[in-house]
User: Which sequence fits this backbone?
């Protein structure tokens, strides 16, 4: 009896969860990319402008990145043609390293700014994705034109690229990696080792 | 003593004779020297073709796609220029720019940056006209007028607050709007990323800059020098953090600069091409 009740509860909980998912999915898909970017942007700006310590800011930003940025898709794009020649072990290692590198790159810059604000502009299609224009305003610096490229391929809207003053971050990164690989013997292993060194260096600098 | 003088005279005579005898064949000699320069040029091109200055085209289709995307035929030469520029920068311009940021307070620096931008506004104006974008040209013209007067010789960007924000333009972009392809990527020593087209554009812009035609006197030449020096230091100072971050974040900073530069130039050219605003501002109608 207890077991069956527990089971029933479990089923109803699962059903509720499934319903919740099915109800929230269309809502998420229907959510306009501009609204998604506005929401993500205001959360980021609130963290950047807060008086928290850099470590605390990092802690707050991490879940946002995990939830709203498709890091795996960006990682695959950045490896370009070498993704197809990489072994499964290399792919797994690469994805792990890329996550860390990206998080380091973003969180390093969090402490640099205060008094940041932004406005959202028009949305335009880029292939199957949507690019949302935004202008970032920083005190004492010229306004920066940005585009947030949002993909809904995974069901929920996720950021897959940021274009700053016309330069796509993922494309720039891909050309950086491609050039590094081709100049280091053409092996993915060389890139993985370089990324590892980058992370180690970052940790030692942060540790001091 | 006397024999020495005699020797000197003899040498002089023989030299004169040779000069005189060479007189009639002067044209021949000129063709010879042109030929020599020509063969030097051919030799350089052959050398370049042999791969010391250029990268050979890869055979693999995917690698070829990557090669075409990078658009960097002269990569070996460009990398040498890049390394040279970075080393020189490290010991000259970068420390100067850092000292400048340390010594000069931010409001003064931004005023000088405003002035540099205003002084460059005629170049933007001429290029806007060249690109056939009257609205942009008008904006540049109004910016120059407002900032030179109300903005105290360009030190305050009043025009921005009056609704005329700055926009970039240069002859490289004008040529791009005319459909001139960028040509291969170039890294110019001490000047940074460029392309064949943008390098030519730089030359045109230097010619379009009124400040380069100032007459002697009135301290204008001194002002032109001071302007160029301050502008160089100021724009380097603006990039201190960016370049430092780049060297930290990029595995191959050269390739990252190359990629970002070419994307940004393309985006700028596209934004000028796609600016179809009406010639007159809204308040005019």
Assistant:
């Amino acid at each position: 009896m207890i077991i069956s009740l527990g089971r029933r509860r479990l089923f109803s909980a699962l059903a509720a969860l499934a319903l919740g998912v099915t109800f929230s999915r269309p809502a998420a898909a229907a959510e306009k990319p501009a609204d998604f970017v506005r929401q993500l942007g205001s959360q980021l700006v609130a963290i950047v402008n807060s008086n928290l310590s850099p470590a605390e800011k990092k802690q707050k930003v991490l879940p946002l990145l995990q939830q709203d940025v498709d890091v795996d898709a960006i990682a695959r794009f950045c490896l370009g043609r070498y993704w197809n020649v990489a072994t499964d072990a290399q792919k797994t290692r690469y994805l792990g390293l890329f996550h860390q590198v990206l998080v380091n790159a973003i969180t390093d810059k969090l402490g640099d700014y205060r008094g940041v604000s932004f406005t959202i502009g028009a949305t335009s299609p880029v292939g199957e994705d949507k690019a949302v224009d935004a202008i970032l305003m920083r005190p004492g610096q010229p306004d920066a034109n940005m585009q947030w490229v949002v993909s809904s391929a995974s069901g929920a809207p996720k950021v897959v690229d940021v274009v700053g003053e016309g330069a796509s971050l993922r494309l720039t990164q891909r050309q950086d990696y491609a050039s590094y690989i081709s100049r280091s013997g053409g092996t993915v292993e060389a890139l993985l080792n370089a990324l590892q060194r980058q992370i180690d260096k970052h940790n030692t600098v942060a540790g001091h | 003593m006397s024999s020495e003088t005699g020797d000197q005279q003899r040498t002089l005579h023989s030299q004169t004779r040779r000069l005189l005898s060479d007189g009639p064949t002067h044209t021949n000699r000129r063709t010879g020297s042109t030929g020599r320069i020509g063969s030097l040029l051919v030799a350089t091109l052959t050398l370049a073709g042999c791969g010391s200055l250029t990268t050979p085209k890869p055979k693999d289709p995917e690698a070829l796609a990557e090669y075409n995307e990078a658009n960097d035929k002269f990569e070996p030469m460009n990398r040498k220029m890049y390394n040279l520029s970075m080393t020189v920068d490290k010991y000259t311009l970068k420390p100067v720019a850092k000292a400048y940021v340390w010594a000069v307070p931010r409001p003064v620096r931004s005023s000088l940056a405003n002035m540099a931008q205003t002084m460059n506004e005629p170049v933007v104006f001429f290029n806007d006209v060249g690109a056939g974008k009257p609205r942009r040209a008008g904006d540049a013209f109004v910016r120059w007028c407002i900032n030179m007067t109300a903005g105290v010789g360009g030190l305050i960007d009043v025009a921005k607050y009056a609704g005329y924000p700055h926009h970039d333009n240069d002859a490289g972009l004008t040529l791009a709007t005319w459909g001139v392809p960028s040509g291969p990527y170039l890294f110019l020593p001490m000047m940074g990323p460029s392309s064949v087209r943008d390098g030519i554009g730089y030359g045109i812009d230097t010619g379009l800059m009124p400040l380069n035609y100032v007459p002697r006197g009135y301290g204008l030449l001194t002002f032109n020098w001071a302007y160029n020096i301050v502008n160089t230091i100021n724009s380097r100072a603006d990039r201190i953090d960016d370049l430092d971050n780049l060297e930290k974040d990029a595995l191959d900073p050269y390739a990252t600069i190359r990629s970002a530069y070419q994307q940004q130039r393309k985006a700028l050219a596209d934004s000028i091409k796609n600016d179809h605003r009406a010639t007159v501002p809204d308040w005019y109608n």
About this structure: Residues 1-6, 8-38, 43-47 of chain B have pLDDT under 50 and may be disordered.
